[in-house]
From TrEMBL:
InterPro entries recorded: DUF3427, DUF8090, Helicase/UvrB_N, Helicase_ATP-bd, Helicase_C-like, Helicase_Restrict-Modif_Enz, P-loop_NTPase, PLD-like_dom
Coiled coil: none
Name of the protein this chain belongs to: UvrABC system protein B
Record PANTHER family: ATP-DEPENDENT HELICASE IRC3-RELATED, TYPE I RESTRICTION ENZYME ECOKI R PROTEIN
Organism: Vagococcus luciliae
SUPFAM superfamilies in UniProt: P-loop containing nucleoside triphosphate hydrolases, Phospholipase D/nuclease
Limits of the Helicase C-terminal domain: 426-596
Annotated Helicase ATP-binding domain residues: 229-381
Amino acid sequence: MDDTLLDKALKKAFVDKTVESQYLNPKFIVNDKEKKEFLLSTIQQELVACQSFILSVAFITQSGLNTIKAQLADLAKQGVKGRVLTSTYLGFNNPDVFLSLLEIPNIEVRLSQKEGFHSKGYLFSHSDYQTFIIGSSNLTMNALKLNYEWNIKLTSKDNGDLISTINNHLEKEWEQASILTKEWIRKFSKNYQPLPKRIIQNRDLIKENTNGYIFPNSMQKEALDSLDKLRKSGANKGLIISATGTGKTYLAAFDVAKVKPKRFLFIVHREQILNNAIESFKKVVGGDDSDYGILSGQYKDLEAKYLFSTIQTISKKDYQDILGPDAFDYILIDEVHKAGATSYINTINYFQPTFLLGMTATPERTDGFNIFELFDYNVAYEIRLQDALEEDLLCPFHYFGVTDYEKNGLIINETTDLSYLTYPDRVDFLIEKINYYGCSGNIPKGLVFCSRKEEAKQLALLFKERGIPSDFLSGEDTIAERERVIELLENGTIHYIFTVDIFNEGIDIPKINQVIMLRNTESNIIFIQQLGRGLRKDDSKEFVTVIDFIGNYQNNYMIPMALSGDSSRNKNNLRRDTIDVNYLSGLSAINFEKVAKDRIFKSIDAAKLNSLAELRKSYQRLKNRLNRIPMLYDFEEMGELDPLVVIQREKTYNQFLDKMKESYAPINDKEQLALKFVSIEFLFGGRPHELLVLKECLKNNRDEIEVNEIKELWESKGINYNPQILHSVMSVLDLSFYESGLQKSYMPAQLVTKSSKGLELTLFFKEAKKNDSFILFLKDVIDTGLKKLESKGMPDSLQLYSKYRRKDVLRLLNMKFNQNEQGIGGYTYNNNQFVIFVTLDKGKDFKASLMAYEDEFIDEQTFHWFTKSPRTIDSPEVKILRDSENWTIHLFIKRKYNQQDRETDFYYVGEMNPIIETIEQNKKPTSDNTLKNVVEMDFLLKNRVEPNMYEFLTGNLD
């Protein structure tokens, strides 16, 4: 580590805040939900990069420990070890967490004997420096992610006085502490008295006062108000979309209590749900027991005021004839996504209630049936998984994406033979991983989802043989058999139920504390359904452990898609959601082991997410929901599909609609070209300036827009600008910015030209404004681009780790665009901006250059780079870099050359400065066996590349 870096960092922190320094700066860390910044992220990043570590923390919970288990597992593979010093102070740490600590092979744990031990310190050793975090946060999930905590992160050379004092003190404490052993835990458990459970009353599925009266939580209140407004508008149907475990039944009961129907019918698809539903309704609606009845199997309570029936029974003509079409004034259908079946359709068509309510967690279907149409497109309220976690309606979950068994290079995939899936070594591997990641309370009550029936059956037997009581269920088992096995799981007689798909939905086992996935993710809907089996709150657990064994599956890209709820089909988003997993709210967390993460990246690279078949599915889903042809803006607003994916494929949205067999009024070739220009050049969301000017030009009375009006327009929107930006925007809009080839291609559809006062609409644009279809699509592109920018905070400059095309970089930096993008090659420079584009890991088949340029990161802040050839110390660009005081140098990285994905965009990793003493001229061989001059040098980045991003950019994914 360069001493000057640390000097700058310390001077900036403690002497002068204006000093330029990014690397090694002391950092004040406060959990910030809005910014998605948490102490947890900092600790995980330090662990990933460290060579050893010491955690000295008084309080540890299983959930807090879980947040770093994946990182510790990766460190174990590298041979990196650490130490944990903790205590029994105040009886906070329970026996379960001590047992969990012993499951981690690369840490040594000791117990401080110091009275009142209450430290909170995290120390990480690197090659030539140490980082330490000291403050108020223990190793608990609340402290790491939720609580208002103060922590300071500092960096020191190994011989610094402060770190030396801390290390000496820790060594002394460590020597005096006792070693944690199973025998110690056994003795501790005998006398351990658990702390009283903290009761959270303000956010739960239901609230209950001292008189036993139940009233709705905040989200249920919003849903009830929405249902009330829906009915007042004259609607007689409504749909509630609510994640599994969020209290849909109670919500329905509250609404029934409010409406007070003369007769009410509740329809479900499975008989065992009925009794639970009746109990929930009794708590809310009240009344005599005789008011409630069941229509199913042996029960035929046809006269009940509140009738609860299975669809199998209520759909029979005999019972419908007895009841009559006007029997009920309020009907509720649970799990209504199944309503495409004939039994449901016939029942809905027969009965004529005043109000029909449908409830589901997953309205999207794969068979093309439109649930939204069935309910007249009236979505009364929607709460998805992210919302439910935000509101603390679900049990927190800890997801671990772990690597599946591998031997001799053979990795589990979709076609793996059964004998390999049940190979004894794989079974031992699975058990080892499951024990390592554990569960709340250390006594598992788990569901294991397998890829095929025989695998589930054999694995259950093999687990049983190894002393882990387990059972197997399939679709062939009767309901009575399923209920018997579920009872065995709930009472602890068995630890696991192995199955294929029968528990995806419609089953309520609140005590489940572990969900294990041993199968390919075939759809994000099924993934969330299976995850949801463990998310119901229960006093027996504090969290749910989800262990996803990730093999070499083609569909691994669906994992980040499902966890984040991002269905944009934008590969960059999926990569981001695999790297940065802070999108989960509350006390839930996501962690991937490195190898598992790499398999997801490879799947994303290979996936054809923009195939016409896939885009048609997304299009049809949104059309089904809206009951009209959706526009690009709808896709952006609903998050169904990233409009960029459509434009990158079809160039304009109206061309995409042609492929969807939808038709609008004709658009001529020039108008089509204008739409292509605006869509391709501005939709990506670089800056709002051009879009706002174009939107102003669309106004009926607009034939020109003066410079002062442009400035006033930007000022009214709070958009920053300067003379350079103004000149750049006007040049982009009148096409003079673009290199000659691209300028020529766009010129027939030029929208504006520069005038003495500002910008003037071309004759073509004035005429095109008379075509309502053209204006519809042009306005749609403009509004969609602005909507994208709103979500980013209306940036007017380059954003760290965002992706850009070369020409977009030049535009945002107000540079000249003199040659086509391929001609730019590895770098370009003008207007005091020097921009370097690098493709890392170009691969054996990279043919774009005669010379192999070995550009590479030396570490997170140092980059080694080569000029083009032939270049010497006296070449113009080298002279600029040797004397770059008045120049800003930017680095953009394309992750790798990929035959399948063929990425054209570059990640922005920030500004940097050359390390002058490293600049030297050398000769390198070319592919035709000649030597050419080239200059190489090191750069120091102003911003250290974040560990997750660094791993992503530099990791070997082959």
